[in-house]
Amino acid sequence: MPSRSQSLIVGLGESLFDCFPDREVLGGAPLNVALHANALLGLVGGRGVVATRIGRDELGERLLRELGDRGLDTSFVQIDERLPTGRVDVLLDSAGDATYQFLTPSAWDALELDAPLTELARSCDAVVFGTLGQRDKASREAIQSFLLDAPMAIRLFDVNLRQDFYSAEIIDRSLRLASAAKFNEDELTIVARLLGLDPELKVGQSTAFFLKRYDLDWLALTRGPRGTLLVAQDRHHAGEEATFPQDSKADTVGAGDACSAGLLYGSLRGWPQEKTATLANRLGAYVASRPGATPKLPADLLAEAGVQSQ
Known about the structure:
The protein has helices at residues 29-41, 58-69, 115-123, 137-148, 168-177, 185-194, 203-213, 255-268, 273-288, 299-308, and strands at 8-12, 16-20, 23-27, 47-55, 77-80, 86-92, 98-102, 126-129, 154-158, 180-184, 218-222, 228-232, 235-237. By secondary structure, the protein is of the alpha/beta class. The longest helix is centred in the C-terminal third of the chain and has 16 residues, at 273-288. Helix content is 38%, strand content 22%. A nine-stranded mixed sheet has the order 5-4-1-8-9-10-11-12-13, sandwiched between helices. The two termini are 21 Å apart.
């Protein structure tokens, strides 16, 4: 296994292009996390990679090219000869919040646990996965097998509910395979209902339930502008709230994925929970201040993480 200063974070599952009315932007939650994690870990000799599947088509070629331009290893990007590279039509409301329409099926629905992915599972230090990447039986089996092959890694289940591509069974199994979980406030309510919790439970009671029932090391609750609440061992850590000047075309797409990268980075570095939550807040707030899910992180923000990691 790599040392903590050479940590390897895997984004496992879907990759796609977020298609706005005026542009197409590289995306997919696991890919977004991998990109931001790679930028952070590059400060300390580590890296982020994405484990996904794309089509042999124009968007797939563009995806590989853009990942290469961002310095991301593409060794674990599988090529499908039949299915197209994923895409999602993104509709924004007046506040910049997004709704999504996904191309179905897409190449990432056919993800396979081949020999390279099996070795990656056994060598990684952290992996993030969600529900969308498990919407097809083939990819679901590959993702769940990968997690079983990574018992020593941080296994972050970023719930990331999209349309109707989830079920109580998938969520329950994912939580049992995870060592940590991340919800937004709406997702916490939906998942609690799906799993039969009392709808009158307060947030603290719900998070305590998930930590205990699924033996999680920590749980993160994202709360928009109020930042991330990190819960571990019955203690709540909010970190410092963060804001950045807003670009005129800013949207919230990918803000939670940047937050996930910060949570994993701080956890692998052995930071105190509050410092980890503060970095997650700053990364999420920055991405929410820019257009698209994967803006390049500014040097001063990366420098903060590098200084704090010493």
